[in-house]
Amino acid sequence: MFIFICIMTFVVCFLLGIGSKVVLKPSWAKNYEVKMTPEVGTLYTDLSYGEKESNRFDMYLPHDQTKKHYGLVVYLHAGGFTSGDKSGDKDILSWLCSKGYVAVGINYTLFNEDNPDANVYTQSLEIKDAIPHIIEQAKQYGYSIDKMAIAGGSAGHTLAMIYAYRDAKTSPIPVQLLFGAVGPSSFYVEDWDNYGFNQNTDKARQGAAELFSVMSGTQITSEMIQDQTYLEKVKHISALMWINDETVPSIVAYGKYDKVQPFKGSQRLLKAYQKHHVDYQYFVAEHSGHGLQNDNKIYHQYMQTVEAYLEKYMPVKESTNK
């Protein structure tokens, strides 16, 4: 019962955080929302990258097809790893396309009663598998991709960080940039005080073991929590543990009063950026939870920084005759 409550709280709060951000859009948000029209580009939906029903992606191709190479920006959807859809990010994907990028939203197999074996790790593998298919599909449409950025919100942010930090070396094209908001980056129990996992009790250790087992797809026991051997078991879904001196520039935003993912974990992420001299921008919404809904000024600064870093690390090349 305890772990059921933890999981349901985790999922419900994720969804409430997402909803609050959608309802309370500030006036400046329209600058990052573009209606997809033929003048902006062409949208292809539900392209396949695998055999599973959810292995689909949407591709937004810019109207200008005269460049020799294009940058790819992948944006992964939110939903607590249990819900959500790529179509929910149509506004930001259309905006990215209007900037001259090939923009892509990817669906992945969600953890639910129909897919009880899905977890953060299997989802991260699906994202990894999708990238070569995306590059090849773009090429077939006449768009040669030579670099990429990956991003997302909440659960999508976690998956984006895993790809950018764990899988960048095996990416078929160079990963130039990571950006995203409110995604869990690590699973140190002392950081997860929002669920009481930092308590030195059998109940807390059991709760952490069961929730982390579900998320990682790996059996973790209370004993592993106590002797800290669980950390190696969750490394494959802990983006922070893959940060090194070669980690790509990163822009992240977190809410100080987040009750879904641990704010303390984001501070640990910050220390990792600093230790390894990553070119980073770390934004704290001082009055907000998971939806960042009470700090529109900070969220605006975050988006302005995303735009500036895209221009710096993913510059759109001038048009040329092919």
**CATH homologous superfamily, by name?**
Alpha/Beta hydrolase fold, catalytic domain
Number of domains: 1
Question: What is the number of helices?
Answer: 9
**Beta-strand proportion:** 15-25%
Question: Strands of the largest sheet, in order across it?
Answer: 1-2-4-3-5-6-7-8
What is the CA-based Rg, rounded? Answer: 19 Å
Overall structural class, as computed from helix and strand content, comes to alpha/beta
Overall shape: it is globular
CATH class call: Alpha Beta
Summed over residues and divided by their number, the pLDDT gives a mean of 92
Number of strands: 8
Proportion of residues in helical segments: 25-40%
CATH topology: Rossmann fold
How can the largest sheet be summarized? 8 strands, mixed
Regions with pLDDT < 50 over 5+ consecutive residues?
A: 14-24
Order of helices and strands: HEEEHEHEHEHHHEHEH
End-to-end Cα distance, whole Å, is: 62 Å
Question: Could you explain how this protein is built, in words?
Answer:
- The structure is a single chain.
- With 322 residues, the chain is of the alpha/beta class.
- The chain has one domain (2-186, 238-313): 3-Layer(aba) Sandwich (Rossmann fold), CATH 3.40.50.1820.
- It contains nine helices and eight strands.
- The chain has helices spanning 2-23, 90-98, 120-140, 155-166, 202-216, 222-227, 230-233, 263-275, 296-313, and strands at 41-48, 56-62, 70-76, 102-106, 145-153, 175-181, 250-255, 280-285.
- Strands 1-2-4-3-5-6-7-8 form an eight-stranded mixed β-sheet, with helices on both faces.
- The longest helix has 22 residues, at 2-23.
